[in-house]
C-alpha cells in the first residue's frame, strides 16, 4: 500500500503534536450534543457575542457604512445613521484606496496605525511610532508570526506561564520549538515568582535549550490575575539580564474587575525604568478587538507593537506579513473605532459610554458571582477573577474519581468536565489543556454567560459538582448520578 | 555585545529566505515615490478595487445589514436596502450564534459551508460534502495551512510551476521545504509539458528530495493560461502514479477571456475519470472572494475543499485551524453571496447580472488591449491573457542593458522595472520574482487599470520601452532618457 503525503502517518509531526484544548475533546462533544438537540452553554472560549453580549452600536454603524459607501450619498442615510458615524465612515474610507474591498498595505492601513499609535501614546504617556505597529487578523495571528520569527528549531525555548492560554503551546509545537514552562502560584493569587522563573531557565539550559523569549499574559488567561508594577519590573529586568524578547499578551487590558491594580502596560513600565533597559529590551505587545467591551471576536482585528526591535528585523516581519497580502480591512475599522471612540460632545458619545460601561460593570458582577459560586461548592476553590474573562477553579478530585477516570481512559479533569457537560450542558475546558501542577485539577469557564442566567448556571454547576463529590467520596452510594 | 532573539542575525533563517516579490523592492520604491507625490499605477498586485473597480452592490448590502442588525427592525430600512438583501442578511445571521462578532467554528459557519458545497455540486455535476470544505481568510491562508501540513523538512519537495505566484515559493521557504520547479512553456502558450514534469521529479529525487505535492494554478498566475481537460487528465494521472497530493489553485475560475477552453475544475476532471484514480488521488482545491468579479481582496474570504483526504488528517487540519480560532466572519458572508447570488426573479438579480458581466466583459477587453499593447512594443512579446488578471510579457533586454543593470547592482529585469516605474509611475513586478528560464526576462502587470485609462498607460509604457531599447541598443545615443 503506497503512502500519500496527506495520509495521517505521513503529515508533519509538528502539526500532530500541537494541542489546542479550547476547541478540543470537550468542545467536539459539546457540538455533538448540540446537534442532538441538547442546550449547550459554551463557556469554553471567550466569545462574548455568542453568549448574548450585544455589539457596541457605533463601531457597527461605522463599518456598515464603510461596507456600503453608496449609502453615504443617499438622502435617507440620516434616517438610519447618526452624523458622527457617517463622518467617521467617510474619514476611514479616506484612509483606503479602494475601500474595504482593496488589500491594504500588509502592515495595515497607515491611518489606522497612526490612530493606534496615538492611543498607545495617551495610555502610556510616551509617544508611539506607527511604523512599529502592524495590524493583524486578531492577536493570535500576530503572536504566531512573532513566534515563527523567533523559533529556529527545537533547541529554541520560549518561556510560557503555566497555566497558559494554549495558543502558545500549540504555536510553539507547530513551529517546532520547545516550551519552557514557568509556574504561576495559585496560592499567591496566581502571582509570578521570579525565583521559580530563574529555575525554569536553568533547567531548560541544562537540557541544552536556548531560552529566547518569554510570554506574559496580563491580565491572565486562564488565571485572571493582574500583574503589579513591581512584578512587571522584575520580569523586565529578568528578560533584560537573560537576553529574552518579552511577548506581552495584553488583549484583556480593558477587562479589569478590581481597583487595586489597574492595568499597566509592559511598555509603560519599561519606558518608566529609563535607560539602558528602556533602550535595549526587545518587547512585542499584542492587542485585539475581540475582548474588552467590544468583544468583536468574529471580525478578527488586532495589532502588535514592536519596541527596540532592529529595523532589519522589522523589515523581515513586514515581508512575512506580505506573503498573505493583507489582514482583513473591516477588522482594521473596528480597531480604529476601539482606539478612537466617540468623544464627549459627539452625538454617539452617551450611547457609547452607556453601552461600554454597562458591559464592564456587568462583567465585574459576573466575576464575583462566578467566583463566589465556585467557592460555595464542595472540594472547589477559586481565586477571584481580577481581570480577563475566565474563572479557573481548582477541583479537588477524590481518589475514587481519579480511579474512575483511569478506568474510562480519561485524564481526571477531562472525565470531570465531560460528566459536567453531559449533566448540565456547561461546556468548559479541563485544566490539563492549560497546564497545571502534577496531581492538581482545574477547569476553565468564561465569565460570559448573561448576568441573569448566571445564578441558574452556578446552581446547576453546584448541584452536579456536589453530587459528583458525594458519589466519589463514597458518602452517597445511592446518588442518582 | 550580547545577541537578542529578534536581532537580524538571530532570527529564523527560513523567515529570511522567504521572498515575496509582489510586495518586494519595486513595491517599496513605488510606495516611496507615492509619498513624494508621484502618481503611481499599482499593477503589482491583483487588487481590483484599488484600481477603481466598484464592488458588487448586493453582497455589500447584505454584509452591511449583517454588521448592523439593529437596522433590520427599523421601519426605514426599506428606504436604503432592497427586500432580498434584507432577507439574505436575516438568513445569514441565522447561520451564526451571536452575529458577525462571534467566533464561528474554526472551519467556518456550517450554513455557508453548505452553500459552498451546493455551488461546487452545481459546477462539477458531483455532490460535494460540506464537512470537507473549510473557510479561510482568503485563499492564501488555506494554501499555507496545507503546505505546512505536508512539509516535514527540507527533504520534502513541492512541485511548483515556473513562472509561479510567489506565495508558493515563499510559503515553502517559510516552512522549511524544498521547491521543485517545473517549467511552463512560453512558446506553447505557457502550457505544461508532462515530460518536463517527469524530468523535474527525477532530478529532485536524484538530489534526495521526496516529492510530495504538486501545485497547479489554473487559470495561471502570472501566465494567464487556461488548462485543457486533456492536460488536466495528464496531470492527475501523473500525480496518481507518483503519489503526489495535487493542490489546485483555482482562484481565477471566473476570470476567463476566451471561449475555447472554459474553466473546468481539477475535481470535475478527476471525478469524470472514475475509479481507481477518482477514489485515490488526494486533491485540495482553493477558491476566494478576492478575484472573479467580486474582487473583494480586503475582506479576506476563501475556502479549500479536500478530496480523498483521510478523516484523521482532516481532523488534524481542523485542529490547526482552531489554533487561530476562526476565520473572519464577514469574509464568510461574502463567500455565501458569491456562491449563492441573486436568482432570476429576485429584486437584485438584474443589477447583479449587469454589474458582474460588466466587469468580466471589460476585463476581457482589457486583456486584449494590454496584450496587443505589449506586442506593439520593441523587443517585447506577450502571450494572450486567456484567464486570471495578469499579463506576463517577455522583454528581450539588449546586452548593454544587462551590462548597465550589472553596473547598478541589479538583476536585469528589476533594473528595467525600476526605470519603468521612475519614468511612468507604472508599478510592475519583475519576472525574476516568479521564476523564469535563465537569461530570459519578463515583467508582470495586472490587467486591472480602468478600461478608459488603458490606452494612455500602454502608450506611456511603449514610449518608455522603445526609448529604453533604443538607448541600450545604441541606436539612439541622443535619446532624452
From TrEMBL, chains A, B:
Domain Aminotransferase class I/classII large residues, every copy: 82-450
Catalytic activity: glyoxylate + L-alanine = glycine + pyruvate; glycine + 2-oxoglutarate = glyoxylate + L-glutamate
CDD domains for the chain: AAT_like
GO-annotated biological processes: L-alanine catabolic process; photorespiration
GO molecular function, one term: glycine:2-oxoglutarate aminotransferase activity
Cofactor dependency: pyridoxal 5'-phosphate
EC identifiers of the protein: 2.-.-.-
Any single GO CC term annotated in Swiss-Prot or TrEMBL for this entry: peroxisome
Entry keyword set: Aminotransferase, Pyridoxal phosphate, Transferase
Record pathway: Photosynthesis; C4 acid pathway; Amino-acid degradation; L-alanine degradation via transaminase pathway; pyruvate from L-alanine: step 1/1
Family: Belongs to the class-I pyridoxal-phosphate-dependent aminotransferase family. Alanine aminotransferase subfamily.
Protein name: Transferase
Native source species: Helianthus annuus
Amino acid at each position: 500500500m503506497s503512502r500519500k503525503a496527506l495520509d495521517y502517518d505521513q503529515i508533519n509531526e509538528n502539526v500532530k503534536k500541537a494541542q489546542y484544548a479550547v476547541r478540543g475533546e470537550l468542545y467536539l462533544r459539546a457540538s455533538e450534543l448540540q446537534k442532538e438537540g441538547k442546550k449547550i452553554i459554551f463557556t469554553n472560549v471567550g466569545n462574548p457575542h455568542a453568549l448574548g453580549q450585544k455589539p457596541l452600536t457605533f463601531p457597527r454603524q461605522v463599518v456598515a457604512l464603510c461596507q456600503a459607501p453608496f449609502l453615504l450619498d443617499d438622502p435617507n442615510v440620516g434616517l438610519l445613521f447618526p452624523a458622527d458615524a457617517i463622518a467617521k465612515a467617510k474619514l476611514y474610507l479616506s484612509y483606503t484606496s479602494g475601500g474595504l474591498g482593496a488589500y491594504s498595505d500588509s502592515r495595515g492601513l497607515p491611518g489606522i496605525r497612526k490612530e493606534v499609535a496615538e492611543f498607545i501614546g495617551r495610555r502610556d504617556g510616551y509617544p508611539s511610532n506607527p511604523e512599529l505597529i502592524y495590524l493583524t487578523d486578531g492577536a493570535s495571528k500576530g503572536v504566531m508570526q512573532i513566534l515563527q520569527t523567533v523559533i529556529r528549531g527545537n533547541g529554541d525555548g520560549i518561556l510560557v506561564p503555566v497555566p497558559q492560554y494554549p495558543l502558545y503551546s500549540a504555536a510553539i509545537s507547530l513551529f517546532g520549538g520547545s516550551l519552557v514552562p514557568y509556574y504561576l502560584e495559585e496560592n499567591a493569587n496566581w502571582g509570578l515568582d521570579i525565583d521559580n522563573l530563574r529555575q525554569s531557565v536553568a533547567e531548560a539550559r541544562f537540557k541544552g535549550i536556548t531560552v529566547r523569549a518569554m510570554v506574559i499574559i496580563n491580565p491572565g488567561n486562564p488565571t485572571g490575575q493582574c500583574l503589579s508594577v513591581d512584578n512587571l519590573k522584575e520580569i523586565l529586568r529578568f528578560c533584560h539580564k537573560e537576553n529574552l524578547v518579552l511577548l506581552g499578551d495584553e488583549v484583556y487590558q480593558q477587562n479589569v474587575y478590581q481597583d487595586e491594580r489597574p492595568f499597566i502596560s509592559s511598555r509603560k513600565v519599561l519606558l518608566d525604568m529609563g535607560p539602558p533597559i528602556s533602550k535595549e529590551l526587545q518587547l512585542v505587545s499584542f492587542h485585539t478587538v475581540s475582548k474588552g467591551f467590544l468583544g468583536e471576536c468574529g471580525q478578527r482585528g488586532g495589532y502588535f507593537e514592536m519596541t527596540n526591535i532592529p529595523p532589519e528585523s522589522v523589515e523581515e516581519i513586514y515581508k512575512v506579513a506580505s506573503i498573505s497580502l493583507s489582514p482583513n480591512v473591516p477588522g482594521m475599522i473596528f480597531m480604529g473605532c476601539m482606539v478612537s471612540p466617540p468623544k464627549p460632545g459627539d452625538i454617539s458619545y452617551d450611547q457609547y459610554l452607556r453601552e461600554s460601561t454597562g458591559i464592564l460593570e456587568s462583567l465585574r458582577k459576573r466575576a464575583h458571582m462566578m467566583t463566589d459560586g465556585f467557592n460555595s461548592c464542595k472540594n472547589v476553590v477559586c481565586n477571584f477573577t481580577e481581570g480577563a474573562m475566565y474563572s479557573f477553579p481548582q477541583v479537588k478530585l477524590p481518589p475514587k474519581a481519579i480511579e474512575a477516570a483511569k478506568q474510562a481512559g480519561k485524564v481526571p479533569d477531562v472525565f470531570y468536565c465531560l460528566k459536567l457537560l453531559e449533566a448540565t450542558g456547561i461546556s468548559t475546558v479541563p485544566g490539563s489543556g492549560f497546564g497545571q501542577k502534577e496531581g492538581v485539577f482545574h477547569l476553565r469557564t468564561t465569565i460570559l454567560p448573561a448576568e441573569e442566567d448566571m445564578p441558574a448556571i452556578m446552581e446547576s454547576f453546584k448541584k452536579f459538582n456536589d453530587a459528583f463529590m458525594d458519589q466519589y467520596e463514597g458518602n452517597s452510594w445511592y446518588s442518582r448520578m
